[in-house]
Amino acid sequence: MQIDYLVGGLRISLGPDTMTPGPANHIENAVGALRALGHDVSLYLSSAQPVLSRFASVGEGTAGGSRVPPLAGDAVRLGASALNSARVAAWSASSTADIVYERAAVLTDLSAAHRRARPGGAVRVVESNGIFSRETAHDRNALAAEGLARRIERRLYQKADVVVAVSENLAAELREYAALPDNKLLVVPNGVPPEVADLPRRTPRRIIGFAGAVIDWQNLENLVHAFARVRATLEDGAEWRVHIVGDGPALPALHEAVRADGIGDAVQFLPRMSRTDLYDEMSSWSVGVALHRPSSSRTMYHSPLKLYEYAGLGLACLVSASPDAARLQEAGAAITVVEPTADGIAAALHEIMRAGQVDPDVAHARAASVRQGHGWTTRMESVLQRVEEIAAPGIRFVRP
What we know:
Layout: E1 2-7, H1 21-36, E2 40-45, H2 61-64, H3 70-91, E3 99-103, E4 123-128, H4 132-139, H5 146-159, E5 162-165, H6 168-177, E6 185-187, E7 207-211, H7 220-231, E8 241-245, H8 251-261, E9 267-270, H9 275-282, E10 287-290, H10 305-312, E11 316-319, H11 323-330, E12 334-337, H12 342-355, H13 360-373, H14 376-390
Parallel strand pairs: 1-2, 1-3, 3-4, 4-5, 5-6, 7-8, 7-10, 8-9, 10-11, 11-12
Helix pairs in contact: 1-14, 4-5, 7-8, 7-12
C-alpha cells in the first residue's frame, strides 16, 4: 500500500545534524516501521524544500533561544504554510496513496492540500504529540496569533479520519479541545528504537544520564541539587557521575547550579550527537532520567521517547509519573517513579546509587523483555489496524 507522510513543521529536519532530535527520531522510526511492514512511504518534509530549508536551524521563541518576535514568526509560518500547500498539491497530483498521514504542526494543515485527502479517497490520519497552538504560545513564547492557530489546529483534527495521540492524557485533552468523538482517537505511544537492539553488551558504569533538549520543564536543576546531596552521604558517592547530553536555553542556569553545588568534577555536559553516538554513550550508563514537570497543560501528556531508549537499553529509569512509565514497568523495565522535586528525586537517587552498578545480564534481560512488546513495528501495526476498519472493503494494511 502507498502512504504519503507529511511533515509541515518548519524546524523539523532529519539526519545526524537535526536540531529537533526527538521529532526526527519519531518520524524516522514510524516511517521505518511502515516500510518494514511492506508499505511504500513517500515523505514530504517542509525543511527539505527550497527556500524553507534555512528555518531548520532557527531556534523558536524564548524557550529555544530565538530572537525572532512572535508576530514575525507567525508571518513566516503562514507564508511557509501557503507555499507548502501549493507544493503538496503539485506533489500529490499523481499520488495513488491509500493513507495520507500528517504530523500536526502549528499554523499548518498540509493534508487539506493533498489531492487524495478527499471523500472517497485516501484515509486521512493526523498524528499529534501536543496541543501546538497552546504550547507554542505559552511554553515557547513563539506565537502571537494563537486564536488563528487554534482554529487551524482544531479543523485539522476534525477533518481527520483518525487522530493518533501519543498518550491517554493527550487523547483526553484533544477530545475536549477539538470536540472529537471517541472512535476518531487512537492512542499510540512512542516505542523502543530498533537500533538499541544491535548494540554490543557493555558493563554499565556509575553514570546517571539524561539526553534531550535542555529546557526548564526537563527539571534538571532539581536533579543536580538532589545528586549533590546524595553523593555527599554515600561512601562510594564520589564514584558516581552525571552525564547530560544535549543543548538548550536552560544550560546556563544548569551550569550555575553545578557550580553552586560544587560538583563540577562529577557532572559532564556533552553536546548534541548523532543517534549512533548517543546510544553508544547511553549504553555505558546505569540510570536514565526523565523527570518532566508540568508545562502549560493541566496534565503531563507527552510520551517521553528517552524513556523508551533507556528501558530498551536495560537501564534503571528514574522518572515522573506517566502511563508510559507504568506500561514499561509492567513489561519488566526497572522504573522508579518519583515526585519531580529535589526531595523526591534525592530519596530515589539514594536507593539507586546505594544499590550500585546494574548487573549486565540483568540489564540485558530487562531490555529484551521491553523490546518484545514496545517496538515501533507493533506501534504502527495498531495504526494500520484502525485504518483497515474504516477503509474500503477488501483493503488490507496489516499482514494476516
